[in-house]
Amino acid sequence: MGSLSGRGEEITSRLERILRDQHLQENLLRRTLAYLVDFLICSIPAWIILETVASTWLIGYPVNRFFLLEGAIQVAYGSILEYSRGATLGKSFARLRVALFGESDPSTHFARNLSKLHPILLLLDLVLGYLYSPDPRQKLTDKAVDAFVVVEKEAKGRGKVREA
Question: Is the pTM above the cut of 0.70?
């Protein structure tokens, strides 16, 4: 029972850090804005594909079909743009960049974007990252590939961190 109590205190401590730390709040708000912009960008082709071609061969409820197709587009879109430019259009709009501690290759960006296949996976990625990453700026997939999403001005001069 003591370990559960200790875990609860750690979670409370992380929540208090988010509530106190304005830089962390700014990072989280910018990431949310970036995700919404990217979601809208990827929703347009998903909607067009569903309305014209895929509605006859994609199985499942219409909302779930949309989220799976939009998610697949978002994984490809995010992986390609983050590998080639260091940011998606949404991240660029929010003045964010992906910073890596290791090598930048397409599989690294694919892995960090994989949870965007479906909103439930993304939510789990965010919550588990919050619970298990020492830095609340990291999703679980960010932690797995040693990546951070940082405000552009922070990406410069972070020592070993290199932009994607």
Answer: yes
